[in-house]
Every structure is written in structure tokens, then in C-alpha cells.
Amino acid sequence: MPCIPRLLHFTGDWLGPVWRNAVGVLLFIVTLPASAISRDWTTVWVNPDENVDVYTQVNMSGEVHVASDVNGSPACVDYWWITWPFGRVQQLGRHCGRASFEIPGWSSLAISSRLRAGGAESRTRIQGSAIEEIAKNFPEINF
Question: How far apart are CA 65 and CA 101, in angstroms?
């Protein structure tokens, strides 16, 4: 008989579900990607008739998550990407409250990009976070 069933039998019937739940929680935590555990949130403020940079990246892929509010109530803000090297502007539209945007990558000829926000009706707080990874690994150059 394997060791684990003996352990569960030894601890009694009431501890079996507790043991299974503890193991399940431990496996869940261990298998989470590091980016999902430790996301840093950045806060920027946008005033009426002002545009601000919410997120800037170089050679990354993933998603940017934003939440805009005025005194705790969802606020509507216009978002757009500016991509380099061609300076193309990609309009994302007006979003109220929470929104997620895919980071433009190599498929859209973007080596770097910047998420901008504007068009707020009053002083608005925007909180942003990204789940990102390196999009393209370049060969190492040694001199």
C-alpha cells in the first residue's frame, strides 16, 4: 500500500478533506506563473485636455490591463497605441472603467510601443499593469 493513503487513513476521515485542500492550494500556488503572482500596478493621473503615457515597452509581448476612475466611480478615457519605428497610431477607442489591450508586437511591425490615454472629462486616475514577456530573443554580440 502506498505511503499517502496510509497517511490519510492515519490522520482520520475529518483530516482527509483538509489534506486534499492544502495540497490543492499548494499545487495552485506553485504552478502560477511569476507574472500572475507579482504584477506591479502603476498609477497615473490625467487632467482634461491632457494626454499621458500609461505604458511603454520595447520588444515585449503580452497584455496591458487598465482601470480608470474618478473618486472610485468608473471613468471613460480614450486609449491608443503609438508604435515604433514607423510612428503608427492605433486607436483603441473610449473605454469606461476596466479594459485590457494586447501589446502590439512584431506581427504589426512594432519594435516598441507606448499606450497613451486622454480625453478625460475631469481629473481621472488610471491604474495600469502588464503581463509581459520578451517577444524576440536576439543573438548575443560580443566585442
Answer: 7
